[in-house]
Amino acid sequence: MIGTGILKGMAVTARNFVGSYFDKERLITVQYPEERDPLPENYRNFPFLVYDGDDPNAGLRCVACKICEKECPPQCIYIVKSEDKKPDYIGKPQFYAKVFDIDISVCMSCQICVEVCPFEAIKMDKEFELSRRERFDALLMRKDDLAKSNDYYRRISPTDAAEVDAKLTAAAEAAAKKKAAAPAAAKPATPATSSTSGRPAPSGASS
Ligand code: SF4
Ligand code: SF4
Questions:
Q1: Residue nearest to atom 6 of ligand 1 (CA)
Q2: Which of 53, 103, 186, 187 has the most neighbouring CB atoms within 10 Å?
Q3: Which residue has the least CA distance to atom 1 on ligand 1?
Q4: Residue 40: beta bridge partners?
Q5: How far is the CA of 70 from the centre of ligand 1 (A)?
Q6: How many angstroms separate the alpha carbon of residue 52 from the centre of ligand 2?
């Protein structure tokens, strides 16, 4: 019958409206900003840069490889790579981002930058109260604005952060083992032949 769907919908609305006075589960609005519903763990808005330890400059994981800059569909990431290097989380010298900007007025929260980063250096944030009076500079997030600690990441995305921590710890342990094994492996080879080049073993702990 024509209109049955509308009547059913009205009945659901009426049941929830009246029910919300008696059953808190049916009350789906909160008095924002005083009250806030917890955000789902997979909620995301704009990216941030993760750093380890207490110092954002020393601990930033980003090595300025620029993959995210290339892959970002609306091209809202701008990176300038350093000329010098600093040690990363396993002590390997790496370039770093001298400049790292994200224009969040353009970012569409697609998370592609996160997916393509081989260094677990960029993650999606949950900060949504970012309204500004101006459209341009105020919405351009600089490296200092984007840098947030791994502890912060653990707080906002505990499941993902635990997986990343486990992965990076395993990579660091594998790199340490490889480093420890390298001199032992090199010693017996020396007297037999002179074919070793003396180059340090390539570190595969980058992802
Ligand atoms: S892909 Fe990751 S490491 Fe490379 S520039 Fe982007 S954030 Fe930095
Ligand atoms: S979330 Fe998407 S649009 Fe935003 S910076 Fe990352 S890749 Fe670009």
A1: 68
A2: 103
A3: 117
A4: none
A5: 10
A6: 22
pLDDT, tens digit, for every residue of 37-63? 889 999 999 999 999 999 898 899 999
Query: CA-CA distance, 57 to 144, in Å (whole number)?
Result: 9
Name the residue of 66, 85, 141 whose CB sits within 8 Å of the most ligand 1 atoms, as the mutation to test its pocket.
66
Query: How far does residue 111's CA lie from ligand 2's centre (Å)?
Result: 5
Ligand number nearest to the C-alpha of 68:
1
Tokens of 175: 């790199």
Expressed in angstroms and rounded, the spacing between residue 42 Cα and the centre of ligand 1 is 21
As a whole number, mean pLDDT of residues 185-199 equals 47
Give the global pTM: 0.79
CB 49 within 8 A of CB 100: yes
Span 90-117, pLDDT tens digits: 778 999 999 999 999 999 999 999 999 9
Which domains does the chain show, CATH number per domain? 47-162 (3.30.70.3270)
Tokens (6 digits) for 116: 């393509």
